[in-house]
From TrEMBL, chain A:
It comes from the Bacteria. This is Uncharacterized protein. It comes from Marinobacter persicus.
From TrEMBL, chain B:
The keyword Ion transport applies. Keywords: Cell inner membrane, Cell membrane, Ion channel, Ion transport, Membrane, Transmembrane, Transmembrane helix, Transport. Mechanosensitive channel that participates in the regulation of osmotic pressure changes within the cell, opening in response to stretch forces in the membrane lipid bilayer, without the need for other proteins. Contributes to normal resistance to hypoosmotic shock. Forms an ion channel of 1.0 nanosiemens conductance with a slight preference for anions. It comes from the Bacteria. Gene3D superfamilies: 1.10.287.1260, 2.30.30.60, 3.30.70.100. Residues 103-169 form the Mechanosensitive ion channel MscS domain. The chain crosses the membrane at residues 20-40, 61-79, 85-114. Belongs to the MscS (TC 1.A.23) family. Homoheptamer. It is found in: Cell inner membrane; Cell membrane. This is Small-conductance mechanosensitive channel. Residues 61-101 form the Mechanosensitive ion channel transmembrane helices 2/3 domain.
Amino acid sequence: MTEQSEGQRDGVWAHRYQLASGQTQRHQLGQIRLWVTLLDMEWQVRQEPLAPDADPLTWHETVGSGMPSSDLPEQRFIRSSGDEGLVRYLPAMAPLPTVIRPYQPLTIPADGRCVLYVGNLLWMQIFLGEQQQALTEFPLATPSKTWLGANTMQGEICYASATYGRLVLEAVPIRPWRAVTPVTINNRRTKPLLLERFNLPTPLLSLHRNERGQLWTPGVVVECETDMSSASLRIEPRVTAAAGDCELIAPAREKLAKGRSLVRAFDHIFG
Amino acid sequence: MFDELQNTLMQIVGSIAWGQWLAAGFLLLLGIVLGTLVARSAGKLAENRISRHHQVMIRRLVFYLVFIIFAMAALREVGFSLQVLLGAAGILTVAIGFASQTSASNIISGLFLVMEKPFEIGDLIEVDATVGEVVAIDLLSVKLRTRDNLYVRIPNETLIKTRVVNRSRFPIRRVDLLIGIAYAEDVERVKELLLSLAEQNTVCLEEPKPFVLVTGFGASSVDLQFSFWVVQEEFLEGRGAMMIEIKKALDEAGIEIPFPHTSVYAGSHSAPFRIQLVDPEPTQNKDRLDADQKN
């Protein structure tokens, strides 16, 4: 079926989009294509995955009056009276911790410090109406999983993400489907630290947007005092100054219980 | 004669303290109702903090505790002395013990099972040839629901004696696939192909790392073991999807998965069989016949 579109625009997180009955909003963001259709009695959401090696830098959004192809699997949601056709898309961090693995292991010299800029995959949450009624959520690329633990009996299931381990902010590509987290690693040991992988507590990170529309999370600081297992991790209260003026766009999925140490929550920081 | 019998009956009926018996019955009933209510509340109270297995245990314990208190009160109400009753119970236990060895053994085995906790309610276990989800752990037996939805009752004694495999104990499991490839194929290439499949498949965990082993040189094929790890809940899905992907990938790469071959020698390695080609005429004739019949 043909779609009559009303021009292609750049999609914006948390923007209030107004749809009329019979209209379909089409998005191409990250490694998925998404169609959100409003009908008299229901909302329909359809998704199609794109090639896993695609790395688009933009978010295209169009609104049209035609229905998307019926071949696509659809999710249907009964429309509530108060939504008035308003729809918002909010980003969210991964619901599980993420193991970050640099493509090439990085050695941090004794008593050295480095800041890695990591691009984290985002989930998209769809909210309806002024009441912010949650409709559904999904990742903007298919994440792979991994096991992080001392053995195959004790540990936790995490998402896995490979990173180039960029050390210069200017080299980090800014993509609307990824949020940048500056990870500071302080090696206070007398020996060099070989960084093969580390665990990022993504459910505890909030999302912030700067003036250029880029998404950032507060920085994470890892202090390695004596050995890998005694490393401590803390989340900085604010977003790094390099990001510019930022506004909170989505709170963290989980809040750390008061008095609970982050080290205990993430025992295996370095895998 | 009939009058005497009637009088005796009237005397017996008259001598029974009906009020006490009614009160005792009421106490027992109250015990059951209150026990159920208190057990349910206790289970709900701890619902979010403990596993389903412990929740069921707590509910059962609370129910029996409340019920026993009310049963004792009911016995006192009727006039039984608890001391005498407990003394009699001691003698009775010996008698009953001999009479119901199997039940007693099951009860004791059940207690050991609860203490040892080799599995919990909701776990997928394998006992002898039965694989099923544990739906109840009771005084005498454990109930399983098999994958084809059959209800299986296994006595606790059997579970203590036999080998039990708990498939749900650890969060991740390894899938081992045995693949045979033709002798003419490059094993290194097949190994790379299989590892790249594991890398692309999102059900496969990145770590522990997947691996490929050559396990033997079979009668018709080089036998490989392809192992990768999946989240326990995705075991079946992961194995099935991977087998389809392997078949597709090997077909696309032109790698042969051989069926059993048998080589027949005519007594000497060097003397080949004489082969004579037969004219495929009968098939053509058959087609013509079918066509003729239609006309």
